[in-house]
Each structure stands twice: as structure tokens, then as C-alpha cells.
Amino acid sequence: MCRWWTILPLLCLACVEESAAPADFAAILYPAGNPSTAAGVELGERLFFDPILSADSTVSCASCHRPERAFADGTAVSLGLGGLAGTRNTPGLTNVGYFHHPLFWDGRADNLEAQAGHPVGTPHEMGGTWPEAVARLAASDTYGALFARAFGSPDIDSSRVGHALAQYQRTLVSRNSKYDRVRRGEATYTALEALGHALFFDFGDDPEGAYAGLPTAECAHCHTPPHFTNQRYENNGLDEAMDLQTFPDPGRGAVTGIPYDNGKFRNPGLRNVALTAPYMHDGRFATLEEVVDHYNSGGRYAENRSANVHPLHLDARQKAALVAFLHTLTDTSFVVSFSTKSDRLIEGAGARVQ
Amino acid sequence: MKYLLPLLVLLPLLGCLDDDDQLDPLRDVQFTLNYRATYGGDPLGIQRETYGYPTGDSLKVLLFQYYVSDLELLPADGDDAVRLAEIDLIRWMSAAEDATQQRTYLVPPGDYRGLRFGLGVKPSLNARDPSEFAANYVLNEAEFWGPSTRYVFAKIEANAMLEDDGRFDTGLSYHMGSDALYRTVSLEQPFTVGGNETPTLTLTADVLRALSGNGQTFDITSPDKQTVHGGNQEVATGIWNRLAGQFTLSVE
User: Fold this and answer.
1) Cα–Cα distances in angstroms (integers) from residue B52 to residues A189, B42, B60, in the given order
2) B interface mutation test: which of A29, A216, A303 has the most B CBs within 10 A?
3) Are B96 and A256 an interchain contact pair (Cβ–Cβ within 8 Å)?
4) In CA terms, which of A3, A206, A333, B61 is 20 to 30 Å from A181?
């Protein structure tokens, strides 16, 4: 059979002008089973801000993932249905669509589609069940048509909800922080930010460089650009454990069943990190200054502590410089853009976002 | 627009392939290459094994990895080398991993005299930005020196016990890589692909021999030799040269 139709999209592709500038990041990997569409993104956005998924219609995804906080929530651990406290800090979602390794602090979800399935049935998050959530969606006046536009039929199930939410989250792209603008030659660091940049990326290691002899802060081994995470799991020395079985939260080990993974958590991306306080998987550090103090101390002992976490011997100015650099990862346009849109959506959904 | 003309020429041909059209029947044979990691000859057990070091100290390995470029089989008759892979990252970082990792390739049957690869990321790839590659490509495994520099070719990370107190509390972290360090490794070991039975090749890298071998060692109790990410070139170059020189190839 002649495949004449294969020619059309390729012709269109061939006619696209080449971009002179290199891409900021490797392209998002859109799963073959869930290609993003305008209708799918629109549905996902609406679902994200609508508390209809929770048992009593009071908690939406955006209750914890608040756009004005780069999709974190400002609390040590997430607060769900009825104010129930969870066990982990809400991670921000900046550039989450670029992550192709497992998600959550412990990596228990393989991808965004799978991740979306978890909160609905978790008692301290949305506190309900998927059949109930699907029934509420099906009973609404609007969702049938939105699902039909997004997926070709009005059928609603948890998989489609997850797919739509994933499509929306793949639009949460930040590429206009001061760090990005400096990279593009559109801005310059202050002296303090430049020092922090040099510390973050271990410029002191270059014996011929301008920062030769500067301490190295060892940040970028795990918080690797462009998204400032290597998407892997480390024990960063938060809790002392002479025995690997004694971590208060086993983290990755609870998922893999491997005791050597106990106390390890996913290295979070640092884009917009200044907006996502408090920090660490349990929100134990209120400020970036506390975070830097922790790493400067070398952390607490466990035999699986990262070999790159050790006393840094940074002085007060160097610590302040690291914090200043971390603030350059804030993308105000990203936050403003999604916050503005969310106000409209929350109003429309009648959601109570606290 | 510059691709438009060639596409106009080629696409009608591409578009008219029948669904049941096949490429030429593959005469190539599936060939397995094992990458094996050891420590002092014993299978490497990330985190779960305790190993001795020549200074009398002991350590647990957390990470061992290296890039290989232009992995090639060398035909016995002197023909052009058979490319197996342009780039690959060989990594051990979990206690769950076996000391031997397997890769399979399709190769032409024939007699071969050995194998050749570049240790590290070859200069032509090392010059390219990660954003040029797919996010899940081996050159996007977040093994970068920094935002404007390129790839870390190899890493060895471990926690050492320097006092006999049961605490592996001294981090050892060695990261290496630059165009100047790129090395071509050739290993001679005749074998035949095809025929009655195609052998499995095993490429072994020994972490201890990279840290301390050929009569060379360094003192891991010295603080300036515990974290080497380019700053202590003497230590880094020593480890790199030993790593490049210790690979062995066996045929089974």
C-alpha cells in the first residue's frame, strides 16, 4: 500500500526554519501512549485546579502545588483532606515534564501519568477513591465534553485523568530565570551571585581559573544543570544512622526493599528553589541558609551518605554567595504566568486553595 | 528549508514501501559483551561489600562508572573495524546490581582478533551540548562538569573507614574527564562469531587496580586526596591512567 500520507508531515517538518540558537534543554519526552494535545492540556489544567478529585471536594492538586510557590506549598509536610498532615514535603513542579526517571521523593511512580494516580486514594491527601472521583467527574455538567475533546470519547477513568494531568504538568516549563538570562548573555551576576555560581560548580577545582583555591561546594554533582537534578537518589546526611535500618523515613529503601537504599531521597530540581521553602523531604529546614549550613557541616553519619557530602569549610560570605546564586534560579515570569492563570481556574472551579 | 529538496526526492520512495517490505535478511549474528566490574578480582558489590585498600584501610564502593566511545570489533583479516556502539555509559551504582552487565549487538560473522574502544567521551561528542541529544540518551545522564563544560568520563566514589571504629565516614570521590585524558584501549583476544557457537566476551574493569595498581598507589587518608574533581591532577591522572591500562578481555 502506498504510504503517500507519510509525506505530508515530513514536508511540513522540512519547511520549518532551523533555529540558530541551541535548545536550552533536551526536549521533553512525550510518551507515545499520551501525546499532548491542546484539549488534553486544557482538561489537565482544569482537573489540576478542581477539588472535585478529593473525597469532600475541598482539596485539589493545586492545594499543595501552588503556582505562586512554584507549585510547592510552603509547609513542612503537605496538608490534605481535613488538614491531615502528610509525611513528606510537597515538591515543586518546575520543569517536571523534563524528568524521565521515577518521581516522588522515593521514586515510587515511574512517570507523571503514574504519579497522578497516587494522591486521590491517599488518606492524608485527597482521601477518597478513584471510583468515587470518577463518579463525581461523570456527574458534572462539563467534564464529559472535555474528556471527549481530549480523548475522543466522553468516557472517564483514572487513566485518562492521569494522562490529562500529566499533559498539563508537561507545560510547566521555566527557562527565564536570571541564571538562564546570564547564560544567554542577557544579564550579569552580581559579585556575590558570581561567587556563589563558582562555588556551586566547583570552579575552585580549576588550578588555572580565576577561582583557583576557592572551596568547592560540591552541589552540582547531584543538582546538575539544566534542571539542577540528576534525578537520582542520595543520602545527603540528614539523619545519623549507625544501622541502615534505623532511618526515621527509609525513603527510597521502602520502594526498592534494599536496605542500602534506606535514607536516600530523590535529588530535587533547584529551579525556583527560593520559592519552595521549607526544604528536604520532611521540610526540616526553613530557609536556604539552613540548607547551606547543613551541607557546610558535612551532614550526619551513615555508611551510605553520599561521598560528596563532607565538611565544606565555607565562610559566611561564601555561604551567603551560595544562597544568592540559588536565588538566581527563580523565574518570576513562570510563577506570575501560572499564578495568573490559576486564579481564573480556581475561581471557576470554586476551589478552596489554602 | 534546506532539507526540502532532498526530502521531496526521497519521500515518495519511502512512502511507497509496502507494509511487508523487509530490509535485507540479516546475516548478522547476535553477540554478547559482558561488562564486569571487580575489586581486587572479586565481583564488585556496590555498598554491600567491604574491601581492603593498600594503606590498611577499608572501604565500601558507592559508584563506579565510565563512558566508552567507538566500541569496535577488530576483524582478524585487517578489514575495517565493526562498530558496536558510538557511545555508552557503563555504571554500577546500586546494591541490587550484578557485577556483570550485559549488552548485545548484531555483528557480521567472522574471525576477530580483539576489541577496541575509547575510554571516555570522544572529543567530537565531548564538544556537543547535552541539549542536542534526547533526554534519555547516555549523554544526558547528568554527568556534566558544569553548565558550559562537558562530560565526566569516569567516576569512582566510596566511603572509607580510616579508623578501626566501624564507621565508613570518609567520602572518597574521584571524577575524571577531559579531551586530554581520552584514551583508546585495544585488547587482543582472538574469537570467531558465527559457526557452531558464538562466544561471549567479557570486558573486566577492576576498581582496586584503578585506584592502586602497577606499583602505584595514593594515600586515601590524606584529605587532599579524598575528593578529586579536577583539582588534584596528579591523583586524577594517576587513577585515569591506571583505569585505562587495567582492562582485560576474556572469551568464553
Assistant:
1) 47, 12, 9
2) A303
3) yes
4) A206
- Residue B30: φ, ψ to 5°: -70, 135
ipTM above 0.95, yes or no: no
**C-alpha torsion sign, points A135, A141, A146, A151:** positive
User: Across the interface, which of B12, B141, B231 has its CB nearest the CB of A207?
Assistant: B231
Contact A24 B159 (CB under 8 A): no
Backbone angles phi, psi at B143, to 5 degrees: -105, 60
- Spatial CB neighbours of B22, under 8 Å, sequence gap ≥ 6: none
Instruction: Give the model's pLDDT for residue A345.
Output: 67
Distances B201 to B27, B101, B198, B249 between C-alpha atoms, Å: 20, 12, 10, 7
Boundaries of every domain in chain B: 26-251
Q: How confident is the model over A87-133, as pLDDT tens digits?
A: 999 999 999 999 999 999 999 999 999 999 999 999 999 999 999 99
Contact assessment for residue B31 and residue B107, using Cβ atoms and an 8 Å cutoff:
yes
For A37-173+334-349, CATH number? 1.10.760.10
Ranges under pLDDT 70 in chain B: 1-26, 147-148
Kindly list the residues from chain A whose CB atom is less than 8 angstroms away from the CB atom of residue B4: 11, 14-15
Q: How far apart are the first and last CA of chain A?
A: 58
Q: Which residues contact A277 (CB under 8 A, 6 or more apart)?
A: A72, A74, A285, A286, A287, A288
Domain with CATH 1.10.760.10 in chain A: 37-173+334-349, 178-330
- The answer to whether A216 contacts B140, with C-beta atoms less than 8 Å apart, is no
Report the C-alpha gap between B157 and B233 in whole angstroms.
17
- CATH code: domain A178-330 is 1.10.760.10
Q: Is the separation of the CB atoms in B238 and B209 below 8 Å?
A: no
Tell whether A281 is in a known binding site. Answer: no
Residues 6+ away with beta carbon under 8 Å from B76: B110, B111, B112, B113, B190
What pLDDT digit, counting tens, does each position of B164-216 carry?
999 999 999 999 999 999 999 999 999 999 877 789 999 999 999 999 987 88
CB contact under 8 A, A26 and B95: no
Q: Write down the pLDDT at residue A28.
A: 92
In chain B, residues with a C-beta closer than 8 Å to the C-beta of A25 are 131, 135
Q: How far, in Å, CA of A264 to CA of A239, rounded?
A: 10
Buried b (16+ CB within 10 A) or exposed e, A226-263: bbbbbbbbbbbbbbebeebeebebbbbbebbebbbbbb
Q: Which set of grid coordinates corresponds to residue B244? A: 585505562
User: What's the pLDDT score for residue B215?
Assistant: 81
Among B129, B163, B143, smallest CA distance to B55 is for: B163
DSSP state of A326: H
69-128 in chain B: CB under 8 A from chain A: 93-96
b/e map A15-49, b = 16+ CB within 10 Å = eeeeeeeeeebbebeebeebebeebbbbbbbbbbb
